[in-house]
From TrEMBL:
Belongs to the UDP-glycosyltransferase family. It is an enzyme of class 2 (transferase). CDD domains: GT1_Gtf-like. Keywords: Glycosyltransferase, Transferase. SUPFAM superfamilies: UDP-Glycosyltransferase/glycogen phosphorylase (SSF53756). Pathway: Pigment biosynthesis; anthocyanin biosynthesis. This is Glycosyltransferase. The keyword Transferase applies. GO terms for molecular function: anthocyanidin 3-O-glucosyltransferase activity; quercetin 3-O-glucosyltransferase activity; quercetin 7-O-glucosyltransferase activity. It catalyses: an anthocyanidin + UDP-alpha-D-glucose + H(+) = an anthocyanidin 3-O-beta-D-glucoside + UDP. Its EC number is 2.4.1.-. The lineage of its organism: Eukaryota, Viridiplantae, Streptophyta, Embryophyta, Tracheophyta.
Length: 504
């Protein structure tokens, strides 16, 4: 920093926010969108943003996205990486993500603390991924205000908060498959629709499971006095009843989503490009050209996300069900989708699975797709999804109804909200049978296409209204920015007082 810049910094301190996500695709993507929103909408004086990524994910981000050039346009923005020695390529698939959270708590904590001490200019506010409790612990220890960003759906956060009461009431653990449809009654606001099978995937364990205990502890720490402020990627018209419950315990709750649409809305009219990618995979844009050749609303988009791992036999069941439905589909099959022990050979679906199929009616990508663009394409009329939170919101904004096949974590409850509460699609959790796949695809794409379509279009309208000026998410972001500036100012004053006391 130059001497002149240092003098200006002292005269008019600029808040310096450090954003630290769990290093997996969905968390990195949504928190990068938040980083861009803060960089873009900081107002007079701005907000300086540092985005902290793992070495492994940052290399992939720079290789496969435009993030580096895009963020170069924002004064004061910087990427920082953290080298924690963890095998990210192994720990970011399937349920190993839970192991990643545990390992980061052990190995990354001291590295993070040292990094905070070395930052220049000093960090005045940390926005940490809500699933990584050590971020809060370190921030509190060094005296930096902390805001938690829960990248999952608010319903999952709310369930996590009430898990002690669920366990105490004997509603967990689940007593076998025959117990899965029993109602859960101890989560305020969800008593009428929440079943055992809709609880987050990590609840299907014994009541003393260590992973479950860590998730409960991390969530409950949010409500310590004073409760940590929360950022949520949702909007009031979507999650209003649960948000009202959450705000009783967490008054500082900022619902500023859908983040991807919010960013797009704020970028309109600026010189910054409105298209952006935060992908950790190479995106195959050829699928958009193929979609251009398909009739409107005729294609079912199939993508199970960046973490889901399935068995080869499950892949075959989906394939047979999809092709038997006679509907057009676009299926993204990323590397690692099939479990390592049964990994597919070569770069395509085995030829025996596609014999007799008219290939102009289907397209398979072995790689990754520009999902927001795909879902927004006129040819797409449905989405077979793992019900990850980002995918759910992207589908809602695009007005595309869903068939939900959740894998783990918040995806189980997301699929229940989509199907039972909002009536925006069908829930296929815990089932992988070609006949069920065929039936549900035809129900979504043919038999109830208009019914689901009307509801999806209305929800899309509300989502887009929420991020426009005067909308609930727009106003909540403005409030978040004001509070970040206030927190940063108070943190500087407190440090100044401590320094003066030490001198005296």
């Amino acid at each position: 920093m130059t001497e002149a810049a240092a003098i200006m910094e002292q005269a008019s301190p600029i808040p310096h926010v450090l954003i630290f996500p769990l290093p997996v695709q969905g968390h990195v993507s949504s928190m990068l969108k938040l980083a861009e929103l803060l960089s873009l909408a900081g107002g007079e004086g701005g907000i300086r943003v540092t985005f902290l990524n793992s070495d492994y994910n940052h290399k992939r981000l720079i290789q496969f996205s435009d993030a580096e050039s895009r963020f170069r346009k924002y004064p004061g923005f910087q990427f920082k990486t953290i080298d924690d020695g963890l095998p990210m390529d192994q720990l970011t698939k399937g349920e190993k993500v839970l192991d990643l959270m545990r390992e980061m708590g052990l190995k990354t904590r001291p590295i993070f603390k040292d990094l905070l001490a070395q930052m220049d200019p000093p960090v005045t506010c940390v926005i940490g991924d809500g699933v990584l409790g050590f971020i809060r612990d370190v921030s509190v220890e060094v005296g930096i205000p902390i805001i938690r960003f829960r990248t999952v759906g608010v319903s999952c956060f709310w369930i996590n908060f009430w898990l002690p009461e669920i366990i105490e009431a004997g509603e967990l653990p689940v007593q076998g498959n025959g117990d899965m449809d029993r109602m859960i009654t101890k989560v305020p606001g969800m008593e009428s629709f929440l079943r055992c099978r809709d609880l987050p995937g990590y609840c299907r364990v014994s009541a003393d499971d260590q992973v479950l205990a860590r998730i409960v502890r991390t969530t409950r720490e949010s409500s310590s006095s004073p409760p940590s402020p929360l950022i949520l990627n949702t909007f009031d018209d979507f999650d209003g009843p649960i948000l009202a419950q959450v705000r009783h315990l967490f008054p500082k709750t900022y619902a500023i989503g859908p983040l991807h649409e919010h960013l797009k809305s704020r970028l309109q009219g600026t010189t910054t490009t409105s298209s952006s990618s935060n992908s950790l995979w190479k995106e195959e844009a050829s699928c958009l050209t193929w979609l251009d050749t398909q009739p409107p609303g005729s294609v079912l988009y199939v993508n199970f996300g960046s973490i889901t791992v399935m068995r080869r036999e499950q892949l075959v069941e989906f394939w047979e069900g999809l092709t038997s439905s006679k509907n057009r589909f676009l299926w993204v099959i990323r590397p690692g989708l099939v479990s390592h022990e049964e990994e597919l050979d070569g770069d395509e679906i085995p030829e025996e699975l596609v014999e007799g199929i008219e290939k102009e009616n289907l397209k398979v990508l072995v790689g990754w797709a520009p999902q927001e663009a795909v879902l927004s394409h006129d040819a797409v009329g449905g989405f077979l999804t793992h019900s990850g939170w980002n995918s759910t919101l992207e589908s809602i904004v695009a007005g595309v109804p869903m068939i939900c096949w959740p894998f783990f974590a918040d995806q189980q409850v997301n699929s229940r909200i989509v199907s039972e509460v909002l009536k925006l699609g069908l829930d296929m959790k815990d089932v992988c049978d070609r006949r069920v796949v065929e039936r549900m695809v035809n129900e979504l794409m043919v038999e109830k296409k208009e019914e689901f379509g009307r509801k999806a279009v209305e929800m899309a309208r509300m989502a887009k209204e929420s991020v426009k000026e005067g909308g609930s998410s727009y106003e909540n972001l403005e409030l978040l920015i004001e509070d970040i500036k206030l927190m940063s100012s108070q943190a500087r004053e407190l440090k100044g007082c401590k320094s003066s006391n030490n001198i005296s």
